């Protein structure tokens, strides 16, 4: 029997919250668009590209930190949480950006960096001024070990020990990242109050929520016990990983802090928190909080971390789905400013399959700027390295500059990103791989993203429908997305060989809605679906 096409009912769609049905797009502000020719992106630049984001069809943008900062870690070292760094603009420019974003029915998430401040933050300057400073306990200060060395074996994520000696006051302070990023002491109620007020400051101004930086790091062991060795450590890995973070991350008290943040966000309508948490999925689930009163979305980084293999990814999707508590909404991330780009990790041929996977899985997708035009990691000559991680731990491929290069807008000067000299080198492919050219090419990766987003927005089955995995052969992943009577089949070929998928068992009439090659729309299908190398398809079943 052939059913009528069920068109998404607005009322039904509207019963889901924007961060459940929507798509998040991450902007790394230094590299998105430069309006003043200093080679560094800024808020006015972002504002000038809202037409593009609206055309692309994303629902929310998350902007990496834009607050005043000495930029030791490019904004993740905040020296004032309630202002805008002059490199990026002013509070007035931020207000103008937010108004324009909202006028387009797009949401805006800021990056909240609660674990550490900059060492230039007035709180830290005061804290380190004297052992008797009123803010001494706002940070984590310890006496030296009996031998005069650091209090314990804790390591910093960006290389070296996590304890920095302060000559003047004769104690060490703890920093999970750079020494320019001292960790706040969230066990101190004054710190809690001050940091929660930062959330209110921006919520009052109308931001729609926050991406919370290294959420799992917020509490540390009160006994300062040594971290144990990591038996899985292998040479070539970041030296930080020689130890497990048993006493420095994912302590139970973190959940209390997350609940406080959630409480503040709940004081306002329709706002949300996304947590940056690098933990195994089993642990990730805790960050939804007791009965879902934690982070609305704890970032799920599996598509970034797993090898790009059909079997492993299919198993990971099923496992994640199975682990989710009933109140938890899933999410998927394909790229960010810290990890190798998808077109490099999976290879350019798989970029379309990856896009289709991200945009057809159940759960909020987060895209990283530039992935929609297939941008790749850009090799950075040693004399142009900017990232402190690469400078501290060179040569292991840990540096993040390659994934932070300027957005490629056009084949013109500075890739259309700047009229000056870009702060990081441009990708060598910018003359052919850029928004202007790809937008006009109906078969480009950008056209594919555009079409996938359009489809996801118009199909309830894709945005909020049920997910049901199907058995599939070698190199393939297959699943159904269903809403009411609407049934969509997704089949993705992760390999470079042609593959077949049997649809006769699904006992339905099948017709192709979209191929990653953008050339098979409305094709009627027989008993077998033929997939070319690196092809993904969305099929409607009736
Ligand atoms: C997060 C950010 C990363 C930053 C670090 C320290 O992992 O994504 O860019 O360097 O936290 O704030």
Question: What do you see in this structure?
Answer:
Helix 7 packs parallel to helix 8 and helix 13 packs parallel to helix 16 (445-458). The chain contains 17 helices and 19 strands. The chain is of the alpha/beta class. The protein has helices at residues 10-14, 18-21, 43-48, 50-56, 91-103, 122-127, 189-204, 253-266, 281-284, 302-305, 310-323, 342-345, 351-360, 388-392, 435-439, 445-458, 460-463; strands at 24-27, 60-63, 107-112, 141-142, 163-166, 171-174, 209-212, 272-275, 297-298, 331-333, 364-368, 466-470, 476-483, 486-493, 499-502, 510-515, 524-525, 528-531, 536-541. The strands form 4 sheets. Strands 9-8-7-3-2-1-11-10 form an 8-stranded parallel sheet. Helix content is 25%, strand content 16%. The longest helix has 16 residues, at 189-204. Mean pLDDT is 96; it is low at 1-8. Alpha-D-glucopyranose is lined by residues 73, 76, 113, 177, 213-214, 276, 337-338.
């Amino acid at each position: 029997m052939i059913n009528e096409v069920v068109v998404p009912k607005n009322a039904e769609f509207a019963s889901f919250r924007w961060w459940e049905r929507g798509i998040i797009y991450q902007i790394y502000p230094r590299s998105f668009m430069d309006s003043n020719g200093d080679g560094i992106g800024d808020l006015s630049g972002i504002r000038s590209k809202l037409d593009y984001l609206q055309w692309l069809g994303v629902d929310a943008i998350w902007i990496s930190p834009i607050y005043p900062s000495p930029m030791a870690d490019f904004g993740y070292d905040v020296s004032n949480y309630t202002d805008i760094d002059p490199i990026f603009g002013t509070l007035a420019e931020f207000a103008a950006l937010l108004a324009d974003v909202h006028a387009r029915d797009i949401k805006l998430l800021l990056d909240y960096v609660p674990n550490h401040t900059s060492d230039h933050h007035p709180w830290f300057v005061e804290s380190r001024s004297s052992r008797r400073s009123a803010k001494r306990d706002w940070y984590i200060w310890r006496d030296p070990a009996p031998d005069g060395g650091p209090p314990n074996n804790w390591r910093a994520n960006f290389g070296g020990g996590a304890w920095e000696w302060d000559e003047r006051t004769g104690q060490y302070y703890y920093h999970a990242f750079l020494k320019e990023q001292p960790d706040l002491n969230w066990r101190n109620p004054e710190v809690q109050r001050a940091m929660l007020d930062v959330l209110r400051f921006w919520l009052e101004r109308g931001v729609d929520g926050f991406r919370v930086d290294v959420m799992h790091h917020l509490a540390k062991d009160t006994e300062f016990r040594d971290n144990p060795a990591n038996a899985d450590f292998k040479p070539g890995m970041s030296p930080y990983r020689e130890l497990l973070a048993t006493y420095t991350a994912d302590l139970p008290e973190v959940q209390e802090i997350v609940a406080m943040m959630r409480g503040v966000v709940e004081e306002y309508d329709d706002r949300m928190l996304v947590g940056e948490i690098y933990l195994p999925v089993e642990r990730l689930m805790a960050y939804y909080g007791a009965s879902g009163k934690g982070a609305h979305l704890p970032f799920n980084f599996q598509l970034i971390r797993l090898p790009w293999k059909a079997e492993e990814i299919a198993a990971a999707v099923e496992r994640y789905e199975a682990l989710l508590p009933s109140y938890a909404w899933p999410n998927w991330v394909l790229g960010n400013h810290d990890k190798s780009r998808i077109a490099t990790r999976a290879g350019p041929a798989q970029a379309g399959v990856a896009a289709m996977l991200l945009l057809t899985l159940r759960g909020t997708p987060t895209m990283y700027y530039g992935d929609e035009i297939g941008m790749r990691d850009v090799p950075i000559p040693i004399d142009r390295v900017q990232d402190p991680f690469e400078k501290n731990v060179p040569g292991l491929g840990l540096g993040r500059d390659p994934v932070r290069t300027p957005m490629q807008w056009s084949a013109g000067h500075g890739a259309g990103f700047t009229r000056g000299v870009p702060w990081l080198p441009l990708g060598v492919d910018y003359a052919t791989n850029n928004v202007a050219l790809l937008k006009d090419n109906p078969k480009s990766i950008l056209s594919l993203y555009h079409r996938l987003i359009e489809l996801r927005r118009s199909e309830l089955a894709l945005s909020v429908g049920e997910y049901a995995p199907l058995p599939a052969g070698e190199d393939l992943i297959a699943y159904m997305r269903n809403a009411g009577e609407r049934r969509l089949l997704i089949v993705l070929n992760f390999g470079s060989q042609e593959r077949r998928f049997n649809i006769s068992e699904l006992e339905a009439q099948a017709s192709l809605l979209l191929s990653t090659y953008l050339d098979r729309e409305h094709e009627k299908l027989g008993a077998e679906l033929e997939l070319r190398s690196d092809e993904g398809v969305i099929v409607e079943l009736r």
